[in-house]
Amino acid sequence: MVKVIALFNNKGGVGKTTTIWNLGTSLAHLGKKVLLIDFDPQCNLSIAALGDTEFSTYLESSRELPYGKTIRAFALPYIQQSASGKPYIASVKHKKNANLDIVPGDFWLNNFSDILNVGTDVIGGAGLYRFLMPSSLINAVEIEFNKQYDFALIDLPPSFNSLVRAALYSSDYFLVPCTPDLFSAYCVGLIGQVLPRFIEDWEQGKSRYLQSNSYDQIIPEKGQPKFGGWIFNGFDTRKQSGSTIASKIGADQAQFVKVQESINKKLIPRLQEIKAYSAVPDFVDQEPVASIEDLNVMAPDSIVQNIPIKYLPEADPTRASIGRGKWAPNQITLMENMDKEYDKLANFIIEKF
User: Fold this and answer.
1) What is the pTM of this model?
2) Is the pLDDT of residue 241 over 80?
């Protein structure tokens, strides 16, 4: 069965989209069949994977395609009309990603929260399946396109809104990317406060729903997202005098320690208090499951060229089009090292999740 993983942090700018794109690439490179779901109204994952020109064609509507060929074509009929929506997928633009598909996002997702109602749908138990739309979408894609995925990765907005609830209720695991800044540690603590309330709401609704639907085999298995670990993103390193090994610069190391303490003292203990299921697997602790250095100009260049980091050293930088040369040796080394880190994360997920 497909393992569903959400990339989540209520703080913006922590590298969720970059992580999910490169993690998906590594999983596909290792032979796993991967479905990316762009569940963020900013649609950055779709733009990265497809290119803005191709992505724009999926947004186009017509009499035959009233909702285009994005996630909206499945989600809107499903949650608003209780009808079967039409799933669409696209193969990511880079030719080497044969095992990697994406459900294109849609800016319409900004309206999602206006349609769903936590009080009635979740707590009241009347619309739990409306909040399982991502899970239903994955099933519909597999049936429609005769696919069987190993992993589905969901990109999310920096929020605690209904999009996030729906993705987490549909997920087996969630990963939390963090960056070395003043607010990452604080936001990690917020996740520890809010997620248990999400689960409490689900458990209330599930109890009410099962009173009259006692043979349902899907609802009892959902609403149990497990913390799969955190990722430290965007830090700088420097070799100290006389050393051959680069280490985090002082400021970034200080922020790393703060995030680590917040994971250890404010996130994990509160998740362990959830009684409905074991939200923290034995293989997770305060240490990050991946550490991705700041890729500087390479990260935006990767998005612009629609080429993941794994394959970016094979391409000329964007600036080469205006006669400004090739990647420097140190840039290639950094990209190769970070690609190994994404591969390491992919292997961790394959082995543990």
Assistant:
1) 0.95
2) no
